[in-house]
Amino acid sequence: MAQFDVDLFVIGAGSGGVRASRIAGGHGAKVLVAEEFRIGGTCVIRGCIPKKLYVYASRFVDDYEDAVGYGWSFPQKPTFDWTKLVAAKEKEITRLSGLYQKGVEGVGGSIVQSRAEIEDEHTVRLLNDGRKITAKYILVATGGSPTLVPEIPGIEHAISSNEVFDLKHLPASMLIVGGGFIAVEFASVFTRLGTKVTQVMRADNVLRGFDEDLRTGLHEGLNHAGVTTRFGVLPSKIAKQPNGLLSATFSDGTTGEFEQVLVATGRHPHTQGLGLEKAGVQLDKVGAVKVDDYSRTNVPSIYAVGDVTNRINLTPVAVREGHAFADTVFGGKDVKVDHSNVASAVFSTPEIGTVGLTEAQARDAFDIVDIYRATFRPLKATLSGRTERMMMKIVVDGKSDRVLGVHILGHDAGEMAQLLGIAVKMRATKADFDATMAVHPTAAEELVTMRTRTVRYEK
Length: 459
What we know:
This protein has about 450 residues and is an alpha/beta fold. It has helices at about 15-25, 40-45, 50-70, 80-105, 180-195, 210-225, 275-280, 315-330, 360-365, 380-385, 415-425, 430-435, 445-450; strands at about 5-10, 30-35, 110-115, 115-120, 125, 130-140, 145, 175, 195-200, 230, 235-240, 245-250, 255-260, 260-265, 265-270, 300-305, 345, 350-355, 370-375, 390-395, 405-410, 455-459.
């Protein structure tokens, strides 16, 4: 009789958990996955995928306007149907969720629809029927949850990024609380779809932690699109009015009425109620599971990957961590995940693509820092008449000539960041960029034609 019911029990069927399950199953492990909501996790169900679909929908407004400059005309003004977008989104994420399930089952794994709690280092209890499953290894891949702060009177009237995708109708007005990437993405989406958006935040600018030129450029882009941004201001009370609108009182004493209030002040690791404390698993001060370079907790049989560890909260990182875990534990390999120089994108409009160090980070860490920066009007905007500008910035170690970071604001910035991530990861130099032939006419050619240094900083 086997010592354990399964080789691997995974809590959470998101990107990290499903990848770990598939790879472990491929190595011959007997795998059981528990998911209390929908298979696919944050990215597929209420994050990356539906968000990007909504971003595409919102940008068609600009495309129709631009088309006129290229000779197109429309007999009547294009109209938008929110309910059709929501339905189409739901159809797509249902398809993807099914593919995730097939991926696990295709390697002999099983998925049970239930919340799971850890009883001890080798035992998990399913809450739907009370069954206890023993496992040689337990993987926690429960992701994160929206943080509804500040905790103020009336906060129950607000929605989070979980609910925003399924609103019954497009709101005429919306207050967005927060200045991070989730907040700016939804501000960009809803203002283009026709909602009057006001965005408030504690900080003095959007996207804390990003390069300052990106922050400034995006703020200007949001304002140009019609978003009203207010810094150093948060709601202190939300109240529902007889007319159905929500009245918000702000920390500076001002008030405003909105049809919807979206709180997008970040996410926190989803570790509450998992039984981690009973098993002796250590958490950090924000509730994230503490792990080593191999995603192993202080309990040798329990591992954790993805946002629940609060390392880098991006889907591809969770996928890579899940894959590395399975290869290491079940594949006989020794795989660590390198969390340095991870490229990322913010799908606001204008879009952001970034990899490596910001200017400020580089100046703190290196004695000499060279900055190459260019702003220009993209070719597409010349006939459309749009006033948009692109910004590209290369941060270079002045001693070794190595490219430390690249930051882009503008159309397809995310696509460019993916390829730039390879160059930065390979420790390319500015001379390597200069020696690369340009592709003309493209916006990306600016990255290899910037020859004049904007500024040099020396300690």
